[in-house]
């Protein structure tokens, strides 16, 4: 597994799978793709990913439109 920063991997997944301004998606969908493509360590959980999604929202790369516990709708 190549050591690519997780935020870059998240951005790649979004660009390749959710690249439509009107499309709504959530962090769970992104996390599943990351796991399927072995872009994150198998020990990583969705809860530990929250900091990376928050970082992308804080830098205005993503926009959090709703949140329900650990699910962030973007």
Structural class category: mainly alpha
Could you describe the largest sheet, including whether it forms a barrel? 2 strands, antiparallel
Radius of gyration in whole Å, from Cα? 12 Å
Sequence of secondary-structure elements: HHHEE
Low-confidence stretches: none
- The average pLDDT is 86
Q: Work out the helicity level.
A: 40-55%
What's the number of extended β-strand segments? 2
Count of alpha/pi helices: 3
Q: Order of strands in the sheet with the most strands?
A: 1-2
What does the overall shape look like?
Answer: globular
Describe this structure in words.
The protein has a two-stranded antiparallel ribbon with strand order 1-2. It is 47% helix and 8% strand. With 74 residues, the chain is mostly helical.
List keywords for this structure.
mainly alpha; two-stranded antiparallel ribbon; 74 residues; single chain; globular; 3 helices
List the helices and strands and how they pair.
Blueprint: H1 6-17, H2 27-36, H3 46-58, E1 66-68, E2 71-73
Antiparallel strand pairs: 1-2
